[in-house]
Design a protein that fits this description.
The protein is α+β, with helices and mostly antiparallel strands. It has 3 helices and 2 strands. It starts with a strand and ends with a helix.
Length: 112
């Protein structure tokens, strides 16, 4: 039999793995570790009411607010407008689209 490592597959059954497909964790520790520790993936909680916070910036203060709305904004506006039964404006700027999204979220309950 050729040189193989054993890896536990879903359902707790061992499978043979050729040596060139064995991970460093399996060679060093005898098992495969996850790529990241899930406990480290959670971002720290930030209080958006902190004085001087820039987490939420007024769209009127955006440096790119006068540019045409993004594709993502247009798509979301289409969805919200349809749900609210209101006409869709297609010629909005980024800032105007953001404000309209906020209005439609309030009226449809999607933003809460």
């Amino acid at each position: 039999m050729e040189d193989v490592a054993v890896r536990w597959a879903a359902g707790a059954r061992p499978i043979a793995v050729p040596p060139d497909r064995v991970t460093m964790d399996e060679r060093m520790f005898g098992y495969n570790l996850p790529m990241t520790d899930p406990s480290q993936q959670k971002l720290p909680e930030i209080d958006p009411t902190l004085e001087g916070s820039n987490l939420e910036k007024d769209p009127d203060d955006w440096t790119t607010g006068d540019e045409p709305m993004t594709g993502a904004q247009a798509s979301y506006l289409k969805t919200l407008s349809a749900q609210a039964g209101e006409p869709l404006s297609t010629d909005l700027t980024k800032a105007e689209a953001s404000k309209r999204i906020d209005e439609l979220q309030d009226s449809t309950g999607r933003g809460t």
